[in-house]
Amino acid sequence: MEDMEKIVALAKRRGFIYPGSEIYGGLGGTWDYGPMGALLKKNIKDIWWKDMIQLRDDIVGVDAAILMNPKVWEASGHLEAFTDPLVECRIDHERIRADHQDEIEEHVKDHHPDKNDWTEPRKFNLLVKTYLGIIEGKQQEVYLRGEITQGVHVNFKNVVDSTRVKIPFGIAQIGKAFRNEITPGNFTFRSREFEQMEVQYYVKPDEKESMEIYESWKKNRMDWYLGLGIKEENLRFKDHSPEERAFYAKAATDIQYKFPWGWDEVMGIHHRSDWDLRRHQEYSNQKMTYRNPVTGEEYIPWDIETSAGVDRSLLMFFADAYSEGEKGVVLKLHPKLAPYKAAVFPLLANKLDLIEKAKKLYLSLKNGFMVAWDERGNIGKRYASQDEIGTPYCITIDFQTLEDNTVTVRNRDNASQERIPLESVKTYIIKKVESN
Ligand code: ATP
Fold this sequence. Notes:
Low-confidence stretches: none
Bound molecules: adenosine-5'-triphosphate
Number of domains: 2
CATH architecture of the largest domain: 2-Layer Sandwich
């Protein structure tokens, strides 16, 4: 947990993550991303979107509304089942999740070690309520979506009818979700407002074929995190036993990461059978079937879902990249994830020739990717500052540059330096970032 404190402190100090509405004392379970955090988050989502939609022919993207007709949540079962069982302390009325035994013990130990008296577990709905309409009394009660999944399922027919998708195909979405988490915590890990990135992959209702597709998604998602640099020993699958998973689910697993507090879920891969589409068909009275254009066969497809938290993924990337070198913190983010791909330094701040040349390079690089500029203090301090935010390459314009148009490129991970022609800097960096 000491590591966690360091991570939280770095995130705040360097503009990755701040407590939500901090100047008013905060709001439990909400976080704001600062300039570096917003870039890192955008990079995660952009890479995901590219891998899911741009590079594949079998997945399309949607962007559905956060507010949905409340019937959606009846159909999906969230109004009934989206609950955490809570126990209440009879002494000071603190409520804690019944399955969080360690928190219950800690509460007793910290507040009244000689008394231990709890109610039976009671259910508590996690959906966040709000109201639409301006006239008091005529307002409609609605929910902020508790997961982004349903915005995809309710558009299944629309997508089939308006595009050329053929089963098997996926619908991908990235967006915010809201849950009245009882005990938000572990930094952004459990928040009340968070972002998800999901693919609902619709397949033919066939036991064998659907299980093969489920297995291939497991591998695909694990490889994605490994490819973005997460250390293999820090990732694992945690399969759900038949008792743990929903009654309609045919298989389910979580990808877990070894966070500073222990193994915990980053994403889920679920074989959900035809549960969601069948329920929407029942509650909306609209047909949710798919007709094979060649064979004429008609069925409600099964759904293999991959659901990842953007914030949890970011926290994992951040924690995994955190390292302490001799000269301070180095955030060894995969170059594709790094907020800035490069930084440009004129060796001295008061030499016009150097500044001019460096500015020209800076502006030409900026057109292609995010670049930092720094002319303060000595070069060593500037390197250390970029290391903390994970900038993979620092380029210095010095007196030799004025003579022969070469620059030094310094590598974040091994502090090695190379001299390359000024004119090749842009392609050098693009190549390095892409090939990593
Ligand atoms: P948990 O058991 O940790 O509450 P869950 O199993 O309810 O999570 P899902 O409903 O499967 O989570 O949601 C899919 C993903 O959305 C999770 O793997 C996680 O990355 C993310 N997620 C869910 N709840 C939160 C939250 N409160 N804060 C941040 N991310 C969340």
